[in-house]
Design a protein that fits this description.
Length: 314
């Protein structure tokens, strides 16, 4: 009986720990910023520290072997015209099917050697003259491939420094191919309106409205967060949202998409209640102030700005 008396307390503690930062995004860094996803957004006057790297993103994470700001983008790739060879993807990346096919043959041959059945033992185990001839052809092809590979690499190293930079390319690492853009006052008005409208749709649990103002990726995160709250019998309500200040971090174009990352500071009341309306987290009377970086995207010439990422300030 004593244990049953503790259940309401345990449930309240569970809800309190599980619903902290229950506003849209849940206090996490989520979403995608195009080729800038794993790059640190430039600092602003209201975000002088580093923004927290993405906790969740549909954009694949780059190689972990890089330096710079903790948790951020890969080292700058040498760009044409900067005294270094132009970046070229590895052979398996450029030829995935061919490299997989050749790798299968080579792997089978190595397995045959390791198991004591000869180079062809891993595939057929044949020792006939035709089998020997096939071995010679494979070895000769591998030697020719290696020589050609090293020849191309040496040629690119010799000629890389004289090539000009392509239009739209950037010397800033993995952000190559994006060009800066200039925003208008209407754009900033749209960002501010989206901040308020997304908070309202979140509080109303209106997924249709959220889907019209965010990318499918962000809509999926919002849906998962609201579902998690509902599974606990909880609901988060954000109200009295007051936009205080905004500052552009960066705006750029990639292909037919334009991105803008904006640091925004706003105040709100953020409260989470149970199914009976009892407050289990936050306060309905005391406002909290939040500073986040929101990234918006739109297709040039058509469509409106929609939310593609939320990052927490450092």
């Amino acid at each position: 009986m004593r244990n049953f008396r503790l259940l309401p307390i345990a449930f309240a503690v569970f809800c309190l720990l599980g619903t902290a930062d229950a506003r849209p995004g849940g206090g996490s860094s989520i979403g995608s910023r195009g080729s800038h996803t794993w790059s640190a957004p430039p600092r602003t006057s209201i975000t002088p520290g580093w923004a927290r790297p993405m906790d969740q993103s549909a954009t694949p994470r780059p190689s972990p072997n890089y330096g710079g700001a903790p948790g951020y983008a890969a080292p700058a790739r040498p760009m044409p015209g900067y005294g270094a060879p132009a970046y070229r993807p590895s052979y398996p990346v450029r030829h995935p099917f061919l490299s997989g096919f050749a790798g299968g043959f080579l792997g089978a041959g190595l397995f045959g050697l390791l198991s004591g059945h000869g180079m062809m033992g891993g595939m057929t185990g044949g020792t006939s003259f035709f089998g020997f001839l096939f071995q010679v052809l494979i070895i000769g092809g591998l030697i020719a491939f290696v020589l050609r590979l090293f020849g191309n690499r040496r040629q690119s190293q010799m000629g890389g420094g004289s090539r000009g930079m392509s239009a739209g390319a950037s010397p800033f690492g993995n952000n190559g191919g994006s060009t800066p853009v200039t925003l208008t006052n209407d754009d900033y008005t749209s960002f501010q309106r989206l901040l308020l409208d997304i908070q309202a749709a979140w509080s109303a649990q209106n997924m249709r409205a959220l889907a019209s103002m965010a990318t499918p990726e962000m809509t999926g995160y919002f849906n998962a967060q609201l579902s998690e709250l509902a599974s606990r019998g909880a609901r988060n309500i954000v109200s009295n949202v007051q936009f205080q200040r905004g500052d552009l971090s960066e705006a750029w174009r990639e292909g037919n998409l334009t991105y803008a990352t904006v640091a925004m500071r706003y105040a709100m009341t953020d409260v989470t209640t149970d199914s009976m309306g009892n407050v289990i987290d936050g306060s309905s009377t005391e406002a909290v102030t939040v500073t986040e970086l929101w990234t918006f995207v739109r297709a040039d010439g058509r469509g409106n700005w929609i939310l593609s990422a939320i990052q927490q300030a450092g």
